[in-house]
Amino acid sequence: MPPKKGTKRKASNGSLANGEMDLLPPDRATWPGWVEMESEPAFFNVMLNEMGVQGVKVQEVYGLDEEMLAILPQPVHALIFLFRYRDVDETESEKGTECPEHVWFANQIPDFACASVALLNIVNNIKGLRMGRELRDFKDFTKDMDPLSRGDAIDSFEFVKKIHNSFARENDLLIADVHYRQKSMKAKKRQAVAKARETREAKKEGSTPLKPQPVNGRATATPERASTRTRKQPASIANGTASPASSPLSDPPESDADFETPSKAKKHAQETNGDRRRSARQPKPRKDVFATKAPPPDNDEQEGFHFIAYMPIQGHVWRMDGLDSFPQDMGEFDKTVDGGWMNVAQPALQTRMAMYEGADIEFNLMAVVHDPVVKDRNELARNIKALQAVDEELTKSFEEWRDLDGAETKKDVITGFSSEVSITQTDIDDAALTKELLEELKQDDNLMRLVEMRKKIICEQAPLRGAVRDATETAKGDEEKARHRRHDYGKFVRSWMGALAENELVTDLIEDAT
């Protein structure tokens, strides 16, 4: 039967023609790994906000002296120490041998996830902190897990991973892919070396030499074979025939030299004639490729940035390092003494910073502090509601009360919901008025006293309004920084450079620049 003729394929003009295929960059929304985070407080604040965390913010710390620590908003919930990781940190001893039940701690399982691990180790240990539904469910899900299992759970927590990787650019994903690939290849190489070493050791154990058997009272240099074959007599050098005198069992040897082979005997004779032909150079030691000592890790693995958290939990200061097996208790502190837990964390951090002085190692320090904007916004909503209640009572007493002296309303006074300070009508309705104000409104129907009460409420609003506006502007600035960080300008730069090259302008620009 003749072979079947295949259908002729049509030529394709697409990207798959001639075996070519477009290389698409990885999608950070579905990328399975983690990328390295930059130590920018604005990025951490945006991450906390998108995770649904309210009441705390991240602020940069410029020094550990008392003056610098005093300007931080109180209370300070934790310190985040960022540094370039070196092998010197591997030798730091771990004092903790278990994770207490009252401490939520997770190990860092995936590479480059230390920023999110540090944040989760912090927010899950702050009592009364308002968190989003996803983080609350995650904390309940992992409350009975050990640190290693919690680390695995973080690696599978897509909600946090997407927020973390949203700051990655296309180049960051490619660099991380190369890192993971190299790490996988090195792990396979280490496994191959370990397997070869085990095979070599097993062969050594299986080929143990036999004990020498004595011949005529002397130990032979080689063991006798247990064989039924007849030993072949060596030929005589003199007449070319077999000679009984050449048998090793005929006569006992009279000296140790008789045990030597002709080549060894010749070598022995040359050594006795003198050392004139011996080289003075010492032989090179052989390199054992199966040595038990593992090769030192590459610098790339040793010089990644790493985050460590220090925070107070139930009267003790804990060091939360995801690379440690367990959280480390740094010591107890006295809450009544000025400085509180900082008196324990401050010297520990200063010692660590002193280790890196002069070593060209970058480090940075940030603080997780109380964010008063939530409380200030609630107070502002309560103030607006009180102002509306007084205005309502004034309208009941005198409809033209706004024309009275002292009853005017300045332009910057907030009398209702405001998008500028992120206060909705629901926030105002949910605000509860104080009992004192309610009693005053019931008892006092004097028009002028109500006007004075209104002036007092407006005066109390000024600092709240300023604080909330400042916090809102700061949050907008953080979001703007995050927006620029998340936007990948690489495509624009490549297109622009391509257009310049197409018009043969790159060479001219380089010449003008030089």
Automatic annotation (TrEMBL):
Enzyme class: hydrolase
A single cellular component GO annotation: cytoplasm
Keyword Protease: yes
GO molecular function: cysteine-type deubiquitinase activity
Biased composition, class Basic and acidic residues, residue ranges: 195-206, 268-277
Swiss-Prot/TrEMBL site (Transition state stabilizer) positions: 108
Bias kind Basic residues: ranges: 1-11
Transmembrane segments: none
One Pfam family in the UniProt entry: Peptidase_C12
Record's keyword annotation contains Endoplasmic reticulum: no
Keywords: Hydrolase, Protease, Thiol protease, Ubl conjugation pathway
Documented EC number(s): 3.4.19.12
Coiled coil location: none
SUPFAM superfamilies: Cysteine proteinases
Site keyed Important for enzyme activity: positions: 321
InterPro entries linked to this entry: Papain-like_cys_pep_sf (IPR038765), Peptidase_C12_UCH (IPR001578), Peptidase_C12_UCH_sf (IPR036959)
Region annotation Disordered: where it falls in the sequence: 1-24, 185-303
Span of domain UCH catalytic: 33-370
Name this polypeptide is given: Ubiquitin carboxyl-terminal hydrolase
Natural source organism: Saxophila tyrrhenica
Taxonomic path: Eukaryota, Fungi, Dikarya, Ascomycota, Pezizomycotina
